[in-house]
TrEMBL record:
Organism this protein belongs to: Muraenolepis orangiensis (Patagonian moray cod)
Localisation: Nucleus, Nucleolus
Family that this chain belongs to: Belongs to the NRAP family.
Keywords of the record: Nucleus, RNA-binding
The name this protein goes by in its record: Nucleolar protein 6
Gene Ontology MF terms in the entry: RNA binding
GO biological process, one term: rRNA processing
PANTHER family: NUCLEOLAR PROTEIN 6, NUCLEOLAR RNA-ASSOCIATED PROTEIN
Tagged with keyword Nucleus: yes
Family annotation (Gene3D superfamilies): 1.10.1410.10
Cellular compartments per GO CC: CURI complex; small-subunit processome; UTP-C complex
Length: 89
């Protein structure tokens, strides 16, 4: 029934359940506990957003073949623009 664990007297690494009254189980959270909950919620949302962005990037990223085609096109256009004589020199 109890969910809270505390270290035993002799052995710090051994945890034993603590019996809590119904009043203690359902008491309002402290300000520190509320802050911890808000931080956990924020971390969860940040992690969720990061995972969603990674999935979206996988869907819209270009293949290597397409990247090479675009690079070639940009180089061709750049060379064409550089070969146009200036009008005002």
């Amino acid at each position: 029934m109890p969910n809270v664990l505390t270290p035993t007297g002799d052995q710090e690494d051994v945890l034993r359940p603590v019996k809590l009254s119904r009043k203690d189980l359902y008491k309002a959270p402290t300000a520190e506990e509320l802050n911890q909950l808000k931080e956990a919620e924020s971390l969860f949302h940040c992690s969720l957003l990061k995972l969603q962005m990674e999935e979206l990037l996988k869907e819209v990223s270009l293949s290597d073949r397409r990247k090479k085609q675009i690079d070639s096109f940009v180089q061709t256009v750049t060379k064409a623009l550089q070969s146009v004589p200036s009008c005002c020199s």
